[in-house]
């Protein structure tokens, strides 16, 4: 099993590095110096074909670059979109609607800005005061009410089981998006159909990139307390030590 994600390392002239983990055993497998497609292909192709065939699951965000590389070099693996990443894309669409309405509705601009977190919070976790604020926000904006309803509808996927039912829910949700007429959600018409199998896997299988994201946060802390690490070799070893791996092992 492989988890793959990029992070902003700014090491040796490259802005982004690549974090490879095993989300199942909670290990950092390796840190790659750059996000370049040919470099990634060369790295993964260096492993024997029979070993690559043993990889069964790969977890990633919705990166077309990573998807194409992994499909080519790990043909037996099931690619899984990270659930948190997918839900965050929906939240970001709601936030874009909120920002538009904040600028449009001058009389309520301050209120929409100050209470933006209320729209992101799970409705079951709202305090009584937050629930009142949410009701007020949804009362003053039809588009925000539509966007919030789309968010809640999408979240119902967590209570759906079975491959066909999950795929059907995603398809139905796209129909709701189309009916809403919200331009901020238009990107889902392109991304979701192209990733339907991987999105279904996200909510069908119990794997996520939570561990990978966690190590990315630790890397940010490492960078901060070190005031930046420009030498990639030292940077890589320091990161591998986060999961008590020797820097020379793969």
Rounded radius of gyration (Å):
21 Å
Q: Give the number of domains.
A: 2
Q: What's the helix count?
A: 13
| DSSP strand content | 5-15%
First-to-last CA distance: 14 Å
Helicity, as a percent range = 55-70%
Poorly predicted runs are 245-250
Count of DSSP E strands? 5
String of helices and strands: EEEHHEHEHHHHHHHHHH
Mean pLDDT: 91
Major beta sheet, strand line-up: 3-2-1-4-5
Largest sheet: 5 strands, mixed
Give a brief description.
The chain is 57% helix and 13% strand.
What features would you describe in this structure?
By secondary structure, the protein is an alpha/beta fold. The protein folds into two domains: 2-82 and 208-243, Nucleotidyltransferase, domain 5 (2-Layer Sandwich), CATH 3.30.420; 83-204. It is 57% helix and 13% strand. It is built from 13 helices and five strands. The protein has helices at 37-45, 49-52, 64-73, 83-104, 109-114, 116-120, 128-140, 142-155, 163-180, 188-194, 196-204, 210-225, 232-240, and strands at 2-11, 14-22, 27-32, 57-60, 78-81. The protein has a five-stranded mixed sheet with strand order 3-2-1-4-5, sandwiched between helices. Helix 1 runs parallel beside helix 3 (64-73) and helix 9 (163-180) runs antiparallel to helix 10 (188-194). The two termini are 14 Å apart.
């Amino acid at each position: 099993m492989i988890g793959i994600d990029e992070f902003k390392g700014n090491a040796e002239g490259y802005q982004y590095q690549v974090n490879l983990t095993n989300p199942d055993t909670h290990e950092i497998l390796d840190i790659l110096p750059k996000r370049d497609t040919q470099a990634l292909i060369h790295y993964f192709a260096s492993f024997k074909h029979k070993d690559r065939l043993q990889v069964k699951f790969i977890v990633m965000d919705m990166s077309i670059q990573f998807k194409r590389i992994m499909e080519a070099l790990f043909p037996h693996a099931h690619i899984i979109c990270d659930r948190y990443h997918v839900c965050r894309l929906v939240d970001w669409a709601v936030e874009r609607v909120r920002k538009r309405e904040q600028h449009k509705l001058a009389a309520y601009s301050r209120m929409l800005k100050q209470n933006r977190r209320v729209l992101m919070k799970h409705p079951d976790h709202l305090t009584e005061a937050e629930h009142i604020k949410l009701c007020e926000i949804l009362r003053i904006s039809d588009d925000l009410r539509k966007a919030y309803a789309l968010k809640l509808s999408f979240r119902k996927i967590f209570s759906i089981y079975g491959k066909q039912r999950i795929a059907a829910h995603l398809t139905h949700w796209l129909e709701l998006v189309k009916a809403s007429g919200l331009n901020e959600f238009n990107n889902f018409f392109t991304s979701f159909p192209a990733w339907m199998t991987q999105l279904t896997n996200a909510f069908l299988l119990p794997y996520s990139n939570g561990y990978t994201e966690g190590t990315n946060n630790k890397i940010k802390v490492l960078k901060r307390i070190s005031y930046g690490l420009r030498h990639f070799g030292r940077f890589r070893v320091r990161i591998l030590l986060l999961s008590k791996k020797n820097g020379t092992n793969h």
